[in-house]
Amino acid sequence: MSEEVTAPGSRPGKGQRPTEQTSRTAPPSLHWRTVLPAVGVSLSAFLLFGLQLPGWGHALLVVSLAAAWWSDQELGKDLTLVGIGVAIVSTTSVAADVHWDRFFTIGTVLALAVATPLLVDRLVYRRRAIRFPWRTGKKWSRIERSYLFLVPFLGWLILPFYFIRSGAYLNWPHITDGSELGRFFVGVNFVGTWDELFFICTCFVLLRRHFPVWTANLLQATIFVSFLWELGYREWGPFLTAPFALLQGWIFTKTGSLTYVLIVHLLFDVVVFLSIVHAHNPTWLPIFLV
């Protein structure tokens, strides 16, 4: 990340301020008292978004947060921020819909799911654990620049096959009207941006304060994939969305750049948009192999 977690007892490096994030140390080992509440929060998202069981999902979320506060106050604070976002998203269906009322409802709910944890972190907790590192001052490596060209190519190769052969494109509305097409394009890009703000810069960053990288990554990916399932990435969609969610968390760990992971995501989402439109209207955009 842009500011790495320091080892126990070490001091911040030269020019580095002892911020909230750098002062928090990653534990050398996992303990069931901290892991189980975090797993519970992630599984609550699976129940809420994946299985559509709001009663069980909310109950598990509440129990998990209570267990987190009992185990460790800082863990309780951070999981509460994640839980607030998950709970806000659960107040409405996020299934793809471009009707004007759903367009604004979903947009408002998702915006609140990012803004509310951020405001609680700043105004109630009086810290800056949640941040959005647009600029890191680092140049992207040749591999990172090359990956930006590889992403849309892989999307072009894989996504139409997934949407059409699995029938998953039917989870999105059949759009022929220009206004709806415009809303669909805006919606795809808005949700893609929100994914990185919430799942990576909120959930993953907060979980990373307490767990090793891959533990935190698996936990955020569970929430990420569950949300995408309700959005419309069903059938065998998780075989695509799970690796993507894990890869985004790993890339953010390496680059510390929200800008970079967001560009990756939006490049992929451009192909998502084109693939779904093509699947519904095969004579449009005949640029795919399927």
Lay out the secondary structure.
Layout: H1 20-23, H2 32-50, H3 54-71, H4 73-89, H5 100-124, H6 142-166, H7 178-208, H8 213-231, H9 238-255, H10 258-280
Question: Could you please describe the fold and organization of this structure?
Answer:
The protein is mainly α and 290 residues long. It has one domain (30-127, 139-280). The protein has ten helices and no strands. It has helices at 20-23, 32-50, 54-71, 73-89, 100-124, 142-166, 178-208, 213-231, 238-255, 258-280. The longest helix has 31 residues, at 178-208.
- What is the ordering of alpha helices and beta strands? HHHHHHHHHH
**What share of residues is helical?**
55-70%
* Count of individual beta strands: 0
Q: Indicate the low-confidence ranges by residue numbers.
A: 1-23
**Rg, Cα atoms, Å:** 19 Å
Tell me the number of helical segments per DSSP (H or I, 4 or more residues long).
10
Instruction: Estimate what percentage of residues fall within beta strands.
Output: under 5%
Backbone shape: globular
